[in-house]
Amino acid sequence: MSTRAAQALRHSGDVVCAVRGLTKTYPAVRGRRGTPGTPEVRATDDVRLDIRRGEIFGLLGPNGAGKTTLVRQLTGLMRPDRGSVEILGHDIVRHPERAARILAYLGQESTALDELTVSLAAETTGRLRGLDVRQARAERDAVLDELGLGPLAGRPIKKLSGGQRRLACFAAALVGERPLLVLDEPTTAMDPVARRAVWSAVDRRRAERATTVLLVTHNVIEAETVLDRVAVLDRGRVIACDTPSGLKERVAGEVRVELLWRDRAPLEVPEVAALQDRVVESGRRWTLRLAPEEARAVVATVTGGAAFAALDDFTLATPSLEDVYLALGGAAQQGLVKA
Amino acid sequence: MSVVPAEVLPGSVLAVDETARPAAAELGPRARLWPSLCAVYRAQLSRARVARIPLLFVATFQSIGIMILMRGVVDGGAEAQAVVAGSSVLVVAFVALNLLAQYFGQLRASGGLDHYATLPVPPAAVVLGAAGAYASFTVPGTVVTALFGCVLFGLPVAHLWVLVAVIPLAGAALAGLGAALGLLAPRPELATLLGQLGMSAALLLGVLPADRMPEVVRFARDLLPSTYGVEAFARTFGPHPDWAFVLGDLAVCGVVGVVSLAVATWAYRRAAVR
């Protein structure tokens, strides 16, 4: 986003969360016997973001890009070395304890709730968000009903499947209304029914109360469908921030060609050998990012003649957010995890 | 209160620059100490059904086994009183110190504390709620052990009511210590180790009669908070208990409890925001 747009937003008062120059460095660890040392790591590097009221804002990046570190600083769980975080007018760096009264956080871990029943986990979380017993029970019943968790209410969370457990923790995060939801990979391991329950619960809150959502994900498909805007993180830096379609326009001139060979690439065919240094290879699969006319030529080559005999399958696709990430110079050559 | 708007006061012009921001949004309610303490206590107690009952049996059988062993060495008198009191308080040490240290150590290492740290709940409510629940788990085991010991060694059961004071006070001291160890230990294995060591100390220094011990060990025994619970309980088996001493011992437990729970609360704060 341009600086001018950020300024305009700040004046409009519609920014829920403003992050400026956020930097956190993990110190170097000296190696000990048997364990090699690790160098100093910039987990977040001069991050600047504006999250607007009522939007689903995504943080996308590969493992180790600094998504979780960034979220921990926004939720008051970690102090940054430098920079500011302002949520709904409150300075979270100076008053980290206020974050708990503004936002609900769904972390990746559920150990605090594991041994409770679904119903007690939701009720206790509501009570710890300052609700009285009656309110907490009413909200618990409403949320469990909304997410279809009623039949599981009496089961300990530990005994549920991964996706159900995640849904139960999501339910706990919703009890005790908050204007900002921070969700760290909420739909991991969920089946499509549970995913739909999560997104319709989020949509209802956005429509009724203009709830804002900050979503951490490395699921590219989900990112493309649910996010209003997305910040792409790479090695602690925001390398791009726009709507998913805006980001994809940046690589609109490219097409992704995937070739799956039967057992190995036919390098004896000169046209195939010529592609070898432009390809991202993983086992029998070759991935190429090409201009449309080049792509046509490649497809014509491999679907005819000697190369075709060695070909198992091929696909031609318009770019995804993953291609955007790689085109922007993302460090991880394997790209994002595509679930 | 001044009725002049802040903007027109001299000197405030600098503060209201182009970055004038909208008024800060209203914060959600803060969870008050007692209701949230009760909520944590209730949630922790419910965990007993799932995870703690087998361990309660272990704690009780361990103490009963020790008394049966000691029956061969000790016959009656002050030594028998020390053995029964020590074995009963050992149940408290096993659950409140050892298991609570493990619980908090694991919670901290796995990131489970984030759940509480992102809720507007006072740290004391989390620590006291968990410590209270673990102290409550010890009640049945301690009572069963005390009754069995009285029958085994032929001690009077008239003053067993003193457990009503001994369990919560020794429980507070040992649970506070357990919580502090669990939250301060840099790694969960270390929290487990410290909890086990604390329990072993309570076992060796609490159950074995004190007057057979060398001076150094007796000094270590005086440093251990469970000792005062044991002494208070042991004194009440006598024909004419000296209640002033009993109260004194229990007061030491109470003071250690307050201090260690305060340390645990501080450790929780420290562990929650890194």
From TrEMBL, chain B:
Transmembrane helix keyword on record: yes
Principal location listed in the UniProt entry: membrane
Membrane-topology descriptor: Multi-pass membrane protein
Residue ranges occupied by any ABC-2 type transporter transmembrane domain in the UniProt entry: 84-265
Transmembrane segments: 50-70, 82-104, 125-154, 160-183, 190-210, 243-268
Keywords: Membrane, Transmembrane, Transmembrane helix
A cellular-component GO term for this protein: membrane
GO MF, one annotated term: ABC-type transporter activity
Domain of life where this protein originates: Bacteria
Subcellular localization, as worded in the UniProt entry: Membrane
Short name of one Pfam family: ABC2_membrane_3
Entries under InterPro entries matching the protein: ABC2_TM, Nod_factor_ABC_transporter
Protein name as catalogued: Transporter
